[in-house]
Design goal:
108 residues; alpha+beta; four-stranded mixed β-sheet
């Protein structure tokens, strides 16, 4: 699980990410990131537009938390993950390959 210390909490960080962040789009998710002065921090955002059913939204969050833990990512960035509903229909191994290749594209 992602610890509370690694989650983005400040509204100013979210605003800075949305305004100045670079994005990587994939078939199953979108990443927004920006260089950070401190350590790696992440947030996973699944809106009600994606799925009005909360167990599906929670499952998406669990999948991506697991992907982040498995990736052992350690660059100093702020990262927001926007999963798509299509992620539920993809095998975990395929999603992991796609996620790791997207993380490799991060420039910092």
């Amino acid at each position: 699980m992602i610890s509370r210390e690694l989650s983005i909490k400040k509204p100013s960080d979210f605003y800075r990410l949305k305004k100045d962040g670079l994005s990587i789009k994939s078939n199953n998710f979108q990443l927004k990131y920006i260089k950070s002065d401190s350590e790696f921090k992440v947030s996973i955002i699944v809106s009600k537009i994606i799925s009005p059913i909360s167990p599906k939204r929670n499952k998406l969050k669990r999948i991506y938390k697991s992907l982040i833990n498995d990736s052992k990512f350690n660059k100093k960035i702020l990262l927001i993950v926007y999963p798509k509903i299509t992620s539920l229909n993809v095998k975990y191994s395929e999603l992991k390959v796609e996620f790791l290749s997207a993380l490799d594209k991060i420039k910092y």
